[in-house]
Specification:
With 697 residues, the protein is of the alpha+beta class. The chain is built from 16 helices and 25 strands. Helix 5 runs parallel beside helix 7 and helix 6 runs antiparallel to helix 7.
């Protein structure tokens, strides 16, 4: 196996001589692929004013030995210089990769000194320059070094920061190992940030469903927590602020500040500190404001920017301890606090303490301190995600209980309004039994409401008696429906029989829509016996007034805005005449394969508010034998489905009715039902569906 032999020669100067560190690589893995900073010496430029030309002409520089293999130079605005000579003692060229400094270090420059100091080549890294100027286009601080056979090269390494901690690895990677390690790091980074993205997507969905502010605050905390790690890893410079400089250097502090602010607000909301009515909620807001002020100060270059680094680190640690205090205080007040919430925060505190104390140089083990916060953050996010999943389940349960209570109240209203209702839901015998059987009772109540609604709808026998050539395709979305149909036979003054039928779509669906449909159906029955109502338009005018009276008679400040869209037809089969009036809903008439649309008025029945009602209009239509009249609600045309999961739309609906008009009426109903099911597929039915077809004989 080919061995590497890279020798850093000459001698180490300490005191009056220029520092040169001698390192020997004597085997495949000896002094390779691991940080060996403790084998180097470093010169500190306290004024940060020296350039490479100043350095190489100085007769004496005071170097200090580095005592650790992965050094930590603390919060600093100084420049640091390392001088070394590299010798390739083999008869063939080699390539190595030097890894040094954290990705967010401002200045990382490698100088190659050639021709006895007369030629200087510079290779740059760090986030103080445009990303495109880095020698190696990666998130870290890397330099590619090419060595010809038996070649000697002299180097100076310069590191500088404007207040952030400088961590100093000195790792020389062989090319193959570097590529393997780099790919592995990219893989684990993908998993790490993928977890954050997954959590954000999941809890954004929960927030959209429940509109609960704690989920939104948690989403922002997870987002900025992940972004903090993203910027610390150098990806912010690589992907967001490629120009480097001000934006790149300030983004870490801004993201860190937002992380602290949102974790404070999230914890206060989750622990319901505001509801406890004490000073802790005020303290939380003041703490958040102080962090916000520190973020603003960090935008000002100079001293304020420099002190923002330790301040943000300190506030982060204080915030964690404060959240633990809030959680313990809540538990003492008998408030339920999920054990994983406290556990996750404590784990984050441990990781934050290790990370921050490493930044302050108290723990001098950068290889541990730099990953402690990342690992602790990931564990905490996983724990808090479990906590928030439990909260989602709890809120869903509370929502279902509230809906169940509302359904029970609506059921009571239906019983009072409907003369046909003779029995009420039996009282639950025991409270414990009520809790166990609640869902079953609610479902039974809705099914009972369905029986009531079905009893109010015309029977198939009645429809066939009055309209022999007809069909009714009726498919409620829920157990009960907001769509309903109504049919009666009346006689004119000339003793001519009129078949009056309605196709109605009430506001909403399910129980609310069914409630409105029952009221509207009864009003249609009443209108039949009113001598002042002689046309469909007059019947709709009557419904318009009575619905508003029914729902709004007891409400002066807030009106209930319920009503319906309806197509009301009075059919004279003997004379083949149709008198039609519509509230938003039209009718279609297919004659000899051609479809004609007759539109209703643009206003619905109800929704008058304080305005004077506008009378509805009648449309008189002459019919011919074999004409087919179609009336319908909007449920069929508005259903999503098909290959692209789009609405069916009225254009396609008209084409379907025209196509099936040649079939017998029962066959038409079968085709409509089959078409609807095929279109809907596995998607949820969005609304009630009602289509009535009547053929003129």
């Amino acid at each position: 196996m080919i061995k590497y032999l890279f020798i850093f020669v000459l001698f180490i100067a300490s005191g009056i001589f220029r520092g040169q560190d001698s390192i020997v690589f004597k085997g495949e893995n000896f002094n390779l692929n691991t940080s060996i900073a403790d084998q180097f010496s470093i010169y500190t430029d306290a004024s940060a004013s020296l350039e490479i030309e100043d350095i190489i002409v100085k007769d004496s520089l005071t170097f200090e030995s580095i005592n650790r293999s992965l050094a930590n130079l603390d919060f600093t605005t100084k420049n640091y210089w390392i001088h070394f000579v590299l010798v390739n003692d083999y008869d063939f060229p080699r390539e190595i990769i030097l890894e040094t400094a954290r990705p967010i270090t401002n200045t990382v420059e490698l100088y190659h000194i050639g021709n006895n100091g007369n030629e200087i080549s510079i290779y740059k890294s760090g986030d103080g320059i445009p990303f495109t100027e880095k020698q190696m286009k990666q998130n870290g601080s890397y330099f590619r070094i090419y060595m010809s056979s038996n070649q000697t090269k002299e180097y100076w390494l310069k590191l500088g920061s404007d207040g952030e901690v400088i961590t100093l690895p000195m790792t020389f990677w062989d090319k193959d190992t570097f590529e393997v390690v780099s790919q592995r790091n990219q893989f684990f980074s993908g998993i790490f940030y993928g977890v954050f993205l997954f959590v954000i997507v999941i809890y954004l969905t929960f927030y959209i469903l429940l509109k609960e502010i704690s989920f939104l605050l948690y989403i922002f905390y997870v987002f900025f927590s992940g972004m903090l790690q993203f910027f610390l890893d150098g990806y912010g410079h690589q992907y967001f602020f490629k120009s480097g400089g001000y934006l790149t250097q300030h983004s870490v502090l801004i993201v860190a500040g937002f992380t602290v602010m949102f974790v404070l607000q999230y914890a206060s909301n989750y622990l319901k500190i505001k509801e406890q009515k004490n000073k802790l909620y005020l303290i939380s807001n003041v703490f958040t404001a102080i962090v916000g002020m520190t973020m603003l100060l960090s935008l000002i270059p100079g001293f304020t920017y420099k002190i923002s680094y330790p301040l943000i680190n300190g506030f982060s640690l204080l915030a964690m301890f404060y959240i633990v205090f809030l959680a313990i205080n809540s538990k003492l007040k008998k408030q339920e606090v999920h054990p994983l919430f406290l556990t996750g925060v404590i784990i984050l505190i441990i990781g934050a303490i290790i990370f921050i104390l490493g930044n302050f140089g108290i723990i001098d083990a950068p290889n541990i301190t730099q990953v402690a916060l990342k690992v602790a953050t990931l564990i905490e996010i996983l724990f808090l995600s479990i906590v928030m999943a439990g909260k989602y389940k709890q809120l869903q349960k509370e929502k279902e209980q509230a809906q169940a209570t509302l359904l029970t109240e609506l059921e009571g209203i239906n019983v009072k309004l409907e003369a046909q209702v003779k029995e009420r839901t039996k009282e639950i015998e025991l409270k414990s039994e009520e809790l166990e059987m609640k869902n079953k009772d609610i479902l039974s109540s809705i099914k009972y409401a369905e029986r009531i609604q079905r009893a109010l709808l015309p029977s198939n026998e009645k429809i066939k008696l009055l309209l022999p050539e007809s069909f009714v395709f009726f498919k409620p979305r829920d157990i009960v429906s907001g769509d309903f149909f109504w049919i009666e036979s009346v006689y004119t003054e000339n003793k001519d029989q009129l078949i009056v039928y309605a196709t109605a779509d009430c506001t909403g669906h399910g129980v609310p829509g069914a409630f409105v449909s029952i009221v509207s159906s009864n009003l249609l029955n009443i209108s039949k016996t009113n001598n002042e109502i002689n046309t469909p338009a007059e019947a709709l005018d009557f419904l318009n007034l009575e619905i508003n009276k029914t729902f709004n008679s007891q409400y002066s400040e807030q009106k209930i805005r319920d009503g319906m869209d309806v197509a009301l037809c009075a059919l004279d089969m003997k004379n083949r005449k149709l008198l039609f009036s519509g509230a938003k809903n039209p009718i279609y008439i297919v004659r000899n394969g051609e479809l004609t649309e007759y539109k209703g008025d643009k206003q619905p029945v109800g929704f008058m508010g304080d305005d004077t009602p506008t009378p509805f209009n009648n449309t008189e239509i002459d019919l011919e034998k074999d004409d087919i009249i179609y009336s319908f609600s909007d449920g069929f045309a508005d259903q999503f489905g098909g290959a692209k999961q789009r609405k069916y739309m009225y254009k396609r609906f008209k084409e379907l009715l025209t196509e099936i008009s040649v079939f017998p009426m029962e066959k038409q109903k079968e085709v409509l039902e089959e078409t609807f099911e095929n279109w809907k597929g596995d998607l949820e039915q969005l609304d009630d569906v009602l289509i009535i077809g009547v053929k003129i004989i």
